[in-house]
Amino acid sequence: xxxxxxxxxxxxxxxxxxxxxxxxxxxxxxxxxxxxxxxxxxxxxxxxxxxxxxxxxxxxxxxxxxxxxxxxxxxxxxxxxxxxxxxxxxxxxxxxxxxxxxxxxxxxxxxxxxxxxxxxxxxxxxxxxxxxxxxxxxxxxxxxxxxxxxxxxxxxxxxxxxxxxxxxxxxxxxxxxxxxxxxxxxxxxxxxxxxxxxxxxxxxxxxxxxxxxxxxxxxxxxxxxxxxxxxxxxxxxxxxxxxxxxxxxxxxxxxxxxxxxxxxxxxxxxxxxxxxxxxxxxxxxxxxxxxxxxxxxxxxxxxxxxxxxxxxxxxxxxxxxxxxxxx
Length: 327
Hints:
Blueprint: H1 5-21, E1 28-32, H2 40-55, E2 61-65, H3 73-82, E3 87-91, H4 92-98, H5 114-121, H6 124-128, H7 133-137, E4 139-149, E5 151-154, E6 168-171, H8 175-184, E7 187-190, H9 196-201, E8 207-210, H10 212-217, E9 226-229, E10 234-242, H11 243-247, H12 251-282, E11 289-292, H13 301-312, H14 316-325
Parallel strand pairs: 1-2, 1-3, 6-7, 6-8, 9-11
Antiparallel strand pairs: 3-10, 4-10, 5-8, 5-9
């Protein structure tokens, strides 16, 4: 039987397509983040890559792509689902857009402070919420980190929650925080991190929802008058592996990669516990007015938020119980 070159070429192409569709067995992993190079998450990702290379005897390596080099989080999550991206450190916020139950982590005043938030995120309740991610989001969650607690930085004076009514306020685009600010009467405005500094400088937004690390590192305070140290929400991160990539790993590699990623993701919790007080204290010295406020400041917003999210996030009651038990 004679096989033409044309037929052979078509066959090779078809075989290549089949191989491309198989679960990845990557040894040079790509890990994406939205955070800039100096950020705690990026440093943790780099440390994870270094230890993975060491523990695997150089068999595995991780190339870290910070600052949205591979796209925004929605785009990176899609890449994880297809196996085009191997790993990511990603806000639980983005995952909650696909798995609403994860929105329970953003219940206002679920955590009192960063130490309390870390205890919640390390709990069996929180870990159990990762189990559905392969089926519902096409990713494997290995553990939680954090970007600290959320605060409110404003270009104008804010003497009461009423002063935030109608204020155009930058948020991360996900429903739990959108609902919080809508209930507050603000005008929540989704905006990617790289656009925030200029938007605050030119008045495109009047205020931002942000953590004390980035308010310091990216100097958002340079275009603000008032900071509310509110700690109104924790802002967790999750270490993710593409379920397709994970399926193609040996059992030994699954264990090694998962354990090491979980270890370094977890270090971000301790980093924020350690550094948040100093970041907060520094913001008392930059020439802006700083108010420390609590749940009472926001009136009935918390109760109304709970009513909205009780049906969307069935894990919310268990997470509240865990929060009460870990105070």
